[in-house]
Design brief:
It is built from no helices and seven strands. By secondary structure, it is mainly beta. The chain has one domain.
């Protein structure tokens, strides 16, 4: 029986993945720009990420702005 290729978990995203998230009472859509795994500044704020608790910088398709979200806030499109 052939083994299907799967990602480690549903919370793992890669650069270029299309995602959606809740934003100010509506749904925003965009693409993952990068995975953040250490404390850094992104999207105009300090992001407290780690390898155990990564966050993702995403770019909105509509506005072109970036935001940073935890994996639990993102859904695949």
């Amino acid at each position: 029986m052939a083994k299907k290729s799967q990602r480690k978990s549903d919370d793992t995203f890669r650069k270029g993945d299309k995602v959606a998230w809740n934003s100010h009472g509506s749904t925003a859509e965009g693409k993952v720009e990068r995975k953040i795994t250490k404390r850094t500044e992104a999207a105009g704020r300090e992001v407290d990420a780690s390898p155990e608790e990564p966050q993702y910088e995403v770019r909105s398709d509509k506005s072109g702005n970036t935001a940073v979200h935890k994996p639990s806030a993102l859904r695949r499109r």
